[in-house]
Automatic annotation (TrEMBL):
Transmembrane segments: none
Organism: Nocardioides vastitatis
Domain of life: Bacteria
Full protein name: Molybdenum cofactor biosynthesis protein MoaE
Pfam short name (any one): MoaE
Amino acid sequence: MSHPAVRLVAISEDPLSVAAVLDSLDDPASGGLVLFVGRVRDHDHGRGVTGLSYSAHPHAIDRLRAVCARVAEEYDVSGLSAVHRVGDLAIGDLAVVVATTAGHRGSSFEASRALIDTLKAEVPIWKHQRFVDGTEEWVGAP
């Protein structure tokens, strides 16, 4: 399942590039571009985080492509890109980058919000957090 507005979809062990996402959406007809960058933070629910790792199901990329196509179909966007990192990440590293373009900002804001929310809810990527007290936790794992 594909949609012509879907430009860049990836799950990568390599550091993510905001520039690559923006380049994928270069389009002179788009008046609005909304970008969301999710970074690894140093805390979660009041607990200090030292780092984390992301793991993805082997079919996660297929699910991510399907989510992107569905969001592109449901919203009036001219472009849509989503990339997610897997592997070990440090505090401050980029974990996910999503962006959409549209003729007007409203459509792009709505689509970007739907894209990140749907990605987090439906794409089987799991977070393993390590806390400063030595404990750890899986988030989003089945």
